[in-house]
Write a structure and sequence with these properties.
mainly alpha; 2 domains; binds zinc ion
Amino acid sequence: MNSWRNHLKLGIFLEFIFISIMFFRFSWFQLNDILYIVIICILSPLIMDIDHNQSKLGKTLNKLGLITITIGLVLYYYTEVLYLVIIGLLTSYIALFAPSFVKHRGIIHSIFFCVVYGGIIYLSLGFELAVLGFVGGYTHLLGDKLFFKVL
Ligand SMILES: [Zn+2]
């Protein structure tokens, strides 16, 4: 799958199913977290293509990162929660520099990366949102037909 739009559609579709099941069957996710959920749902299916220099994806992700930083700063002003700023900074930073030191569909396109990405979310936003991030990231591998690419 080479269009970021298709990755986003597939990702949001599967994330929606995942959220519905976890919400209704296991009482996961709080309505308070809706902003995080929306941002993670949009960012996660796209983030793996930060290793892609040529397409619009790097630029799109860079912009998404900047938007996340902006929303994060507003949120920080009211709640003193800094996590979104950090996630946005990481996204923009990696989007700018990753293409120069990893190859496209290399290590960033892997289950390992999903775990690292989920781990970063876990440290800042907790387990449930981390699993959502992991699932969202993995939908990208599904879209690229890299079902079992561990590394
Ligand atoms: Zn890809």
